[in-house]
């Protein structure tokens, strides 16, 4: 009988049975999903990426969509947030303009994103990760790094088997699939998780790292986007293997601090630790318009609605922000950000809106905008938020009224009470893009 920790034979990803030979199928359940690797039981850094997350959640909740191409995104002016694998076969990609996506896959089912639902599901999966290790570093709503170093005594299993159990648990309890990458560092664990999606489980060991990377394009290195890749190509550098032949000094002389990153990551050298989830830095909400808007009168209702979303998230999390940040994107995609620091932290929609309004007024110059966002940063707990304003009595009255509105909405729903700013004014103008926390 092969021991559990014998990497020559590995184990079955489906039934987790240790294998007794190098056969192609599990000798217990017959599954072909066998996991073997020379360093299988020595690696402890994992990267988890949910497969086509938003679309998968929608398909899970509506079985009629199971075999249909599904695109999650906004209206014709929006972009694709994500697409299921059926739609991807037709050429649909994330961040693709919606009209191009529908040209590629005209029979696709388009669903507006329900970020509140996705966040709720993401939190459930995140808690499953924390059941394995306290060292969980979220990268987004649907992906995270885990460091399982030293957890073998706790789980009585090496990290690779623990992650296989985790993957099966997500499928069994959540009805969703994830792809897992395991390595000795974050850089290679993230690369590994992209292999064989969906339901992938891949390993990159230390002994094979340099050879594995040699023939890969430089764009595989974190931080090398299209623009920098073009710069490297002009210098005759296309593959990571070419970087492996260069010394750190010349690379830094040519590309600054990025040159050091190129030198180290091309050799599989990554000492970054998995950092547990830190406190949020900002809370914001934004929306892209169906048509460009230049008028202050048309922007105000949207600003108010977004301010209420941010306020609701702050109050739910018992936090407040001291700096209000306004975000605008013009029709030519140029971004404007403006901010103002308040005397005290706030979680009130009224203060967020009025501060944002004063910033917005100064930007009305005939420019047509395609996106508006509002948020707060410099976050803290709500203990010192919104003290009574002894000078502006009306501000205090508005705060009391807002508390009453919150209670009504909590009892009867978010649309039970609307202010005059928003009533009947914004539904046809915007996509539904909810709050974001960074």
Structural class: alpha+beta
Number of helices: 15
What is the CATH domain class of the largest domain?
Alpha Beta
Main sheet: strands, sense, barrel: 5 strands, mixed
Please state roughly what percent of the residues sit in beta strands, choosing from under 5%, 5-15%, 15-25%, 25-35%, 35-45% or over 45%. Answer: 15-25%
Rg estimate, integer Å = 25 Å
For the secondary structure, the number of strands is 15
Mean pLDDT: 87
> What is the CATH superfamily of the largest domain?
DNA polymerase, Y-family, little finger domain
N-to-C SSE series? EEEHEEHHEHEEHHEHEHHHHHEHEEHEHE
Uncertain stretches:
430-438
CATH topology of the largest domain, which one? Dna Ligase, domain 1
What layout of secondary structure does this protein have?
Elements: E1 11-12, E2 34-35, E3 45-50, H1 53-61, E4 70-73, E5 80-83, H2 85-89, H3 98-104, E6 109-111, H4 115-130, E7 136-140, E8 143-147, H5 152-155, H6 159-174, E9 178-183, H7 186-193, E10 201-203, H8 209-214, H9 226-234, H10 240-244, H11 248-255, H12 257-266, E11 282-293, H13 296-317, E12 319-330, E13 335-346, H14 349-361, E14 369-381, H15 393-412, E15 435-437
Parallel strand pairs: 4-6, 9-10
Antiparallel strand pairs: 1-2, 3-8, 3-9, 4-5, 7-8, 11-14, 11-15, 12-13, 12-14
């Amino acid at each position: 009988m092969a021991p559990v920790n014998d990497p020559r034979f590995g184990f079955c990803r489906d039934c987790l049975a240790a294998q007794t030979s190098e056969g192609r199928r599990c000798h217990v359940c017959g599954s072909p999903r066998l996991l073997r690797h020379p360093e299988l039981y020595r690696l402890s850094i994992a990267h988890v990426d949910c497969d086509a997350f938003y679309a998968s959640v929608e398909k899970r909740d509506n079985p009629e969509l199971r075999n249909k191409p599904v695109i999650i995104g906004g209206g014709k002016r929006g972009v694709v947030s994500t697409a299921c694998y059926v739609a991807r076969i037709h050429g649909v990609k994330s961040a693709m303009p919606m009209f191009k996506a529908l040209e590629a896959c005209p029979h696709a089912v388009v669903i507006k994103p329900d970020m509140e639902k996705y966040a709720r599901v993401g939190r459930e999966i995140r808690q499953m990760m924390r059941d394995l290790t306290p060292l969980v570093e979220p990268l987004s709503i649907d992906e995270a790094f885990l460091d399982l170093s030293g957890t073998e005594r706790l789980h009585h299993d090496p990290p690779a088997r623990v992650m296989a159990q985790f993957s099966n648990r997500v499928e069994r309890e959540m009805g969703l699939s994830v792809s897992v990458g395991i390595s000795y560092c974050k850089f290679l664990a993230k690369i590994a998780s992209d292999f064989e999606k969906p339901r992938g489980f891949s390993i990159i060991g230390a002994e094979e790292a340099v050879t594995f990377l040699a023939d890969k394009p430089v764009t595989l290195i974190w931080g090398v986007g299209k623009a920098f890749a073009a710069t490297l190509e002009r210098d005759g550098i296309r593959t990571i293997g070419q970087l492996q032949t260069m010394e750190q000094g010349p690379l830094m002389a040519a590309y600054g601090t990025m040159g050091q990153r190129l030198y180290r990551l091309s050799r599989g050298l990554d000492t970054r630790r998995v950092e547990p989830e830190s406190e949020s830095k900002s809370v914001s909400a934004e929306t892209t318009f169906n048509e460009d808007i230049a008028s202050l009168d048309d922007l105000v209702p949207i600003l108010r609605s977004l301010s209420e979303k941010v306020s609701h998230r702050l109050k739910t999390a018992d936090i407040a922000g001291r700096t209000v940040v306004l975000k605008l994107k013009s029709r030519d995609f140029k971004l404007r950000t403006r901010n103002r620091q308040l005397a005290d932290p706030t979680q009130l929609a009224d203060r967020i809106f009025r501060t944002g309004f004063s910033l917005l007024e100064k930007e009305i110059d005939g420019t047509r905008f395609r996106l508006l966002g509002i948020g707060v940063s410099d976050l803290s707990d709500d203990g010192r938020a919104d003290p009574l304003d002894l000078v502006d009595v009306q501000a205090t009255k508005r705060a009391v009224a807002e508390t009453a509105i919150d209670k009504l909405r909590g009892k009867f729903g978010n649309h039970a009470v609307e202010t005059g700013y928003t009533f009947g004014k914004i539904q046809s103008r915007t996509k539904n893009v909810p709050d974001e926390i960074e």
